[in-house]
């Protein structure tokens, strides 16, 4: 009798856990697709691959529009006030406030604009994405420290030169997630 109860309890536990995992995966998938509209719109507006924008959103906020960072960065793409204001000035938006970046559409537009600016900054490299991501995460001054010699144009050499473990991890994880999203959310799927 005890063995029978134990087996029943184990079966119920397995059913509960597998059901819980299924719900978790469903919820995560839904959350991950929740910002596709604003991401696609920003990608079209600023001609940045939606898969790259989505990869940055994934790393920065895990798709939570109200995310806040330690350095006052906010929203999906974790924009600091100075970057957001630079976008607002370039777009001639009057009355812009940093808190507007909690809106997913505003945040992805400003973030995509900023990302495009960084990608253009490193356009003369074999792959501007790692440089732009390192700049997005650690700032231009640090990228200038890391891009000496062959690392000035060779993205593999540049990635090896990144001396901040957190930034190296950031670049690598966004690059992996970008490769994951690209076939599903690629450049031809704006």
Q: SSE layout and pairings?
A:
Elements: H1 2-33, H2 36-46, H3 50-61, H4 81-90, H5 104-121, H6 128-138, H7 140-146, H8 155-161, H9 165-181
Helix pairs in contact: 2-5, 3-9, 4-5, 5-6, 6-7, 6-9
Percent helix: 55-70%
The best one-word shape is globular
Q: How are helices and strands ordered from N to C?
A: HHHHHHHHH
Q: What composes the largest sheet?
A: none
N- and C-termini, Cα separation: 61 Å
The number of strands is 0
Strand content: under 5%
Low-pLDDT parts are none
Rg of Cα set: 20 Å
User: How many helices does DSSP assign?
Assistant: 9
Task: Decide which structural class fits the backbone.
Answer: mainly alpha
In round numbers, the mean pLDDT is: 90
Question: What report would you give on this structure?
Answer:
With 190 residues, the chain is mostly helical. 66% of the residues lie in helices and 0% in strands. Helix 5 (104-121) packs across helix 6 and helix 6 (128-138) crosses helix 7. The model has no long low-confidence stretch (mean pLDDT 90).
């Amino acid at each position: 009798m005890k063995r029978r109860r134990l087996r029943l309890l184990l079966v119920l536990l397995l059913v509960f856990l597998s059901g819980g995992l299924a719900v978790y995966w469903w919820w995560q998938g839904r959350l991950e697709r929740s910002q596709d509209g604003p991401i696609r719109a920003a990608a079209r507006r600023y001609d940045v691959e939606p898969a790259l924008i989505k990869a940055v959103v994934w790393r920065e906020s895990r798709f939570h529009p109200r995310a806040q960072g330690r350095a006052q960065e906010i929203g999906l793409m974790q924009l600091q006030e100075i970057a957001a204001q630079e976008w607002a000035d370039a777009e001639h938006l009057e009355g812009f406030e940093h808190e507007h970046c909690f809106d997913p559409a505003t945040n992805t537009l400003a973030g995509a604009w900023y990302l495009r600016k960084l990608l253009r900054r490193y356009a003369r490299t074999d792959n501007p994405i790692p440089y732009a991501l390192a700049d997005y995460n650690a700032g231009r001054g640090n990228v200038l420290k890391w891009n000496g010699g062959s690392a000035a144009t060779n993205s593999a050499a540049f990635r090896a030169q990144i001396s901040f473990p957190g930034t190296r991890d950031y670049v690598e994880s966004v690059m992996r997630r970008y490769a994951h999203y690209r076939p599903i959310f690629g450049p031809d799927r704006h």
